[in-house]
Specification:
By secondary structure, the chain is an alpha+beta fold. The chain is globular and about 40 Å long.
Length: 108
């Protein structure tokens, strides 16, 4: 997710790692990571974070590529956004990235 500092890893739908530590690239920082075990907690966290929806990004509606990120702006809901350089830049050089609203279960 764009500009998201928290890290969440759910392993085997039972083990949850939650914090700010970059688990695979940590080097001399004061970041933290908490590990918890429990399938109920893991399922609830996956549901809260919309994992089913966010795990299946669409292809870009313009370039048909798969360089898709998730963003959320202050006045908008979650959106898919293509970050492929060839797709998001117009002939005049301005940014005009393809976006699509993300429909979450239970939302209008």
């Amino acid at each position: 997710m764009y500009v998201m500092h928290q890290k969440i890893a759910v392993i085997d739908e039972r083990t949850v790692m939650l914090g700010s530590l970059n688990v695979l690239s940590q080097h001399d920082t004061r970041e933290v990571m908490l590990t918890m075990r429990g399938s109920h907690f893991a399922r609830k966290l996956l549901e809260h974070e919309h994992a089913e929806v966010f795990a299946r990004p669409p292809k870009c509606g313009r370039c048909k590529g798969s360089e898709i990120e998730i963003r959320r702006y202050k006045q908008r809901n979650w959106i898919w956004r293509c970050y492929a350089t060839a797709c998001k830049t117009t002939a005049k050089g301005s940014s005009n990235a393809w976006t699509q609203d993300i429909r979450l279960p239970g939302s209008r």
